[in-house]
Design brief:
Largest sheet: 4 strands, mixed
Helix content: 40-55%
Shape: globular
Structural class: alpha+beta
Oligomer: single chain
Number of strands: 4
CATH topology: Nucleotidyltransferase, domain 5
CATH class: Alpha Beta
Number of helices: 4
Distance between the termini: 37 Å
Number of domains: 1
Order of helices and strands: HEEEHHEH
């Protein structure tokens, strides 16, 4: 029996998580993409805490009334800005089992433009 889309993504995500881990110096930039929104978190896996987060549901991004790809770029810039305030400049990118394409790619490019290195 074939895997559903969600099962396939979950399997890919587990495979990625075997190699990608975050620390206090280099946290993991985790991406979650739903049909309407996109979310990003900086996670320290050693302590098991979220350092900062941003999403397309934030008031400043939601009020901008742009399409989903442009909103993802704004989320990337927002997470980069928050990360730099928290003293983080380098991250490990965790695409969450999604293809590096479209909104996920746009978020990554926005984070790089905001000053994050990965």
């Amino acid at each position: 029996m074939a895997l559903s889309k969600e099962q396939r993504r979950q399997r890919i995500h587990y495979r990625i998580r075997k190699t990608v881990a975050g620390s206090a110096e280099r946290p993991r930039l985790a991406v979650f993409r739903s049909n309407k929104e996109i979310y990003a978190q900086l996670i320290d896996d050693v302590r098991g805490v979220t350092i900062t987060a941003a999403s397309s549901r934030d008031k400043d991004i939601d009020a901008s009334k742009v399409n989903k790809t442009e909103a993802a770029k704004l989320v990337g810039k927002s997470i980069a800005e928050k990360a730099i305030k928290a003293g983080v400049d380098s991250v490990a990118f965790d695409r969450g089992g999604y293809l590096y394409h479209g909104r996920v790619k746009s978020l990554a490019e926005g984070a790089r433009e905001g000053g994050l290195k990965f």
